Amino acid sequence: MHITAEILTIGDEILYGQINDTNSTWIGQQLSERGIKVIRKTTVGDVENEMMAAFAEAEKRADIIIITGGLGPTKDDLTKPLLARYFGMELALHEEALAEITALFEKRGFQMTDTNRQQAWLPKGSTKLTNRMGTAPGMWFEKGDKTFVSLPGVPYEMKVLISEQVIPRLREKYTLPVIYHKMIRTIGIGESWLSDKIEWWETSLPPHIRLAYLPSPGEVKLRLTGAGPNLETLAKEVQAEIDRVLPDIQKFVYGYDQETIESAIGKLLLERKLTVSTAESCTGGYLAHEITSVPGSSAYYVGSIISYDNRIKTDELGVKQETLDTVGAVSEETVRQMAEGVRKRLKTDIGLATSGVAGPDGGTPEKPVGTVWIACAFEGQTFTRKLQLTTDRQINIHASALHTLNLLRTSLMEMEEVAK
């Protein structure tokens, strides 16, 4: 039997699109990892009758209701008084909460006001969850076998409360099943092609292991989810299934779980003691940003030349003017010369380059928006690839960087295979 949960986020600002609801995504991940099945995520504005109705509806559907937001000290923060009304409790000053809030203000050197003191008034009958990161305590309510948890909407405050207090309490109250997730991260193959390639494997998976496709621009993640009584057994079974399918998709797999393509590339470069530099046109520095987002990337990444203007391509990278005049900046010849030029100019083992039409305008019938050339240059050998992406500028920039990093990965694989 599943233990179920509903995540309820409170706030007009979420409905208006003024902030992104990252809280429910993170909470869903944490609950899922503990064997709690999230059956619904709901967002409600700061409206009394809507919030009260949402509490009642969630109670009918789920065993656990996690609420974030609306715990501030101002009049538009309604979650605390409405939960008190919902459970038939009075608000009363909680001395321990007041002491904790007072200490936090003193530590930060701020004067506490009467409005701030309102944070210490809690529904009498609820359990206080100490918020060591902020002034709004969390609250725990029980109604038979149902549990309501109210948490601040500030992400870093909510995360500490979930990790340190909510999860341990849920484990004490409920007998949670074991759920095990494993992510296979692929790049360079579309979802439908990947599905066709592994259909034989997908249809032969045991009933207690499920497969989900999670596509995003440039890559597809395969999530395997196993359910059973023993975590160690599940992990072994899932790994056995991965070992079974891996020979068919090995060249597309760059990592597992939370690994990114940029961190996977970093490991390859460190293992092989190689350095890399970048020459960017259409990506405008985004490729360099992705590479340097990895801690320790200074060990293998040297620098970049952003050759957005053709003059930089010729003056700094050594691209021939004749090439630009005859085939243009968005061409195999140009991107090849860019990659080779930056490798020589910055004295690295590898040079990467991008040049394309990011959009939304600038395209031609011969080179429509989304046309991108990428290159990866080693000493004596350069690999190139043409991409035909979307009409969305940001997607094109992001996808171009991902594909360029993957070109580096596959180029290394090809060279090593030849060397054997």
UniProtKB/TrEMBL annotation:
Source superkingdom: Bacteria
Signal peptide start-end: none
A Pfam family hit: MoCF_biosynth
Domain MoaB/Mog: 6-173
Name listed for the protein in its UniProt record: CinA-like protein
Family according to the record: Belongs to the CinA family.
InterPro entries (alphabetical): CinA, CinA-like_C, CinA_C, CinA_KH, Competence-induced_CinA, MoaB/Mog-like_dom_sf, MoaB/Mog_dom
Database matches in SMART domains: MoCF_biosynth (SM00852)
PANTHER family: NICOTINAMIDE-NUCLEOTIDE AMIDOHYDROLASE PNCC (PTHR13939), NMN AMIDOHYDROLASE-LIKE PROTEIN YFAY (PTHR13939:SF0)
